[in-house]
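# step 3/5: fold
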Amino acid sequence: MPKSFKEFSAGDWRRLRPLTQAVKSLRYRIVDRDYRRRPALAGDPAAVARSIGGRKVLVTIAFSDPLLISWQTRLLRHYVPDAVHVVVDNSPADAVAAQVKSIVKAAAAAYLRTPENPWSGGAASRSHGIALNWAWDNVIRRGQPEAFGFLDHDIFPTAADDPFAPIAFQDVYGIVRTAPPRWFLWAGFCMFRFAAVKDKPLDFGQDWFIGLDTGGGNWKPLYSGIEAAGLRVPPTQFFPFKPGIAVTEGPLQWCGSWLHEVGLMGNPELAAEKRAVLARMLAPHLAAAGTPTAVGVAQGAG
């Protein structure tokens, strides 16, 4: 959404930014509205929606990394067994999507593949946001769960946890990010009480015009009506994956007891080494989780 008129400077008006931002916002809304109506490339959204009614559901947006999905599905089943897990695959390559689907099925989670994404390429945040909106419209809102949450594919529980426990006392829960005077929940770890948001025109996309990344599109319909200072939030800390480097070169993040790879940040030349460190940190938890089982499968997923 464009900023309010009073937020534009005289220089903005001279450069016609109120007009250009309004046009770009309208274009985004048209693309988003069309995309939400498209059918899945794989899986049955209606069947998955039926399987989550009245339950707690965690929805992962997968993107081109089968190994992360293998780790996450196993650890969620082990540490968060009461939640239905749905993987919404935003991978553009058919071969990679086939690998992700096989892993998800072996882990007894539900699998859906998004329609071809109009924001593929260099627009990672927009691609992610429109996939979230597709999942909201086609699975979550239709399924009417008790509660739902969105996860990035590179965040992993490392202890028994109920990420939905705080929403017994508040409508939303997750990692708060700010762009003063506004705020939003990071889209990689955010939980919602369905009854509190079901009738709102939610938009999990970004809103760069007011400085908000993926998930920030919910500022106006949702977060603007909630006082962030009153929320219970998980403790969070970024740290370098090895000694002797800056956090920005190779960050990992604790979100409570959840470990986040922070895959899009850092020096790309260190990515393989960081992945190896992450694997070592998760190894004892994966050993405890054992092999995937068929417990708690969401029925009817394609």
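# step 4/5: annotate
Residues 293-302 have pLDDT under 50 and may be disordered.
# step 5/5: archive (pending)
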